[in-house]
Design brief:
By secondary structure, the protein is mainly alpha-helical. Helix content is 58%, strand content 2%. The chain is built from 10 helices and 2 strands. The protein has a two-stranded antiparallel sheet with strand order 1-2. The chain starts with 5 loop residues before the first helix and ends in a 15-residue tail after the last helix.
């Protein structure tokens, strides 16, 4: 349903930022294409939509671990022998076509594959600070502090803020995917679990990683239906 959340209205209709545009391209695969998906064609459509979201906003990549889990579940989970080989080939095809679609976005801006990757790298290095006004873990410890190099680099336990943020993010991803797997195996509704997992992953990225703006929280706010965060997800009927 419609979400009358002031932050979402301000970020989209009021400030006219681009962050809302990729959201349908992330949510559609999780809510519509993956649940009940038994064909390679639907999975390919899901990842092509996701590639479009990445071209709009790289922050859409927060949902990638959940997308990859869904791909694993469709093509490798519970399979053996020849089925695993077929599954790996299907995953390779989906991955290759999705990356190809992402690379196609470059020539429109006179960017070849190498330059396109360089743009993403340079963008990620544009704000080498703990927090660019994002009210997350690093914002609580100090805004605009160098996170990896430069003077007065913030460190915790002898680890730079950037590296520690990445470690926290990766550990959190493992936990989220494990809980996602357990919930689906227990009979919870797949669409609801995947959508909630993608939102939690985006929230985790916003909380744990450095160099983020506050608006990157958009993906976590807009994604899940409110009941998706209940402790006991309703089982499929």
């Amino acid at each position: 349903g419609v979400r009358l959340i002031p932050a979402l209205i301000a970020l989209s209709a009021v400030w006219a930022l681009a962050d809302p545009f990729p959201s349908p391209f992330v949510r559609a695969p999780l809510c519509r294409l993956f649940p009940g998906w038994q064909s390679l064609r639907r999975g390919l459509a899901a990842f092509l939509l996701f590639a479009v979201a990445i071209t709009m906003k790289p922050q859409s990549g927060f949902a990638l671990p959940v997308m990859l889990y869904a791909l694993y579940r469709r093509h490798l989970h519970g399979r053996s022998g020849r089925e695993i080989v077929d599954g790996l080939l299907s995953i390779a095809l989906v991955g290759a076509l999705s990356v190809a679609l992402w690379l196609v976005s470059g020539p429109a801006f006179r960017l070849g594959p190498v330059k396109l990757v360089a743009v993403y790298r340079d963008t990620s290095n544009a704000y080498p600070y703990t927090s660019a006004n994002a009210f997350n873990l690093w914002g609580a410890l100090g805004f605009w502090r160098h996170d990896s190099t430069g003077s007065h680099v913030m460190t915790l336990f002898g680890i730079t803020a950037r590296n520690l943020g990445v470690l926290l993010f990766l550990a959190g991803i493992v936990l989220i995917l494990w809980q996602t797997h357990r919930a689906i195996e227990a009979g919870a509704r797949e669409a609801r679990v995947l959508t909630a997992a993608a939102a939690v992953t985006a929230l985790l990225g916003h909380t744990a990683l450095t160099r983020l703006h506050g608006r990157y929280l958009f993906a976590a706010l807009v994604g899940p239906p409110p009941p998706a965060f209940s402790r006991a997800l309703p089982p499929a009927q």
